[in-house]
Amino acid sequence: MAHIHLEDGAFSLQWVSIWWILSLILVCLCIYWMRKMKNKNNNNNKVLTIAGMCTAASFAIFQVNIPLFGGVHMNLTPLIGILGGPAGGGIIVFIVNILSAAIGHGGWGLIGANTLVNITEVSIAYFTYRGLAKAKLSSFSRAGIATLAGLMFGNIIMIVIILVSGIQGVTQSRMDILYGLSLLAGVNMGVAAIEAVLTGYVISYIQKVRPDMLQEAEPLV
């Protein structure tokens, strides 16, 4: 949902490097955790199948652009988090961002920043969904709440990254930029409500027909 739609050169090389380094550290941690899980879990084929399915679905819907405030879209990151866990989900969103940049959806230099945003969405949604396990809520409600929580924090991280990095060639003050980004985040959260309903229905359906797919990856903590 939250995605920094800026071209290469919008951020200085310093901040491009910082966000790339941080995202690569997180992706390496995700890979390490997945390898650790592989050694403990003999059902690795199911994990790979879910990861492949989520990657394809996310990349496809990622390209469906709603022409509001420069373009908003769904990306299914909360669903990815619920099904694949934060480690698997982190790898998936990194791949999706690379594929998207390859077809011109976002700059190559912003893959690091966008990966951080999307990993936030994946992780918050996963832990929220798991955290509501003891509550007397339906799978639909848990998934919907997790989706809204994940996408809200994703928008916050997006705003923070842009404000911290600054946009080269823009003469607006930080307060003006914050105001514009807040409007964009509001639109994003409106679309997030639609994604919450969609994710809720998908998880409810999976719960009925393939509950084994909801045996998420083990928590990172």
From TrEMBL:
Highest taxon in the source lineage: Archaea
Gene3D superfamilies: 1.10.1760.20
Keyword Aminoacyl-tRNA synthetase appears in the UniProt entry: no
Keywords recorded for this protein, A-Z: Cell membrane, Membrane, Transmembrane, Transmembrane helix, Transport
Transmembrane segments: 12-35, 47-66, 78-99, 143-165, 177-203
Main location class: membrane
InterPro entries, per database record: CbiM/NikMN
Entry keyword annotation includes Acetylation: no
Record localization: Cell membrane
Topology within the bilayer: Multi-pass membrane protein
Matching Pfam families: CbiM (PF01891)
Name of the protein in question: Energy-coupling factor ABC transporter permease
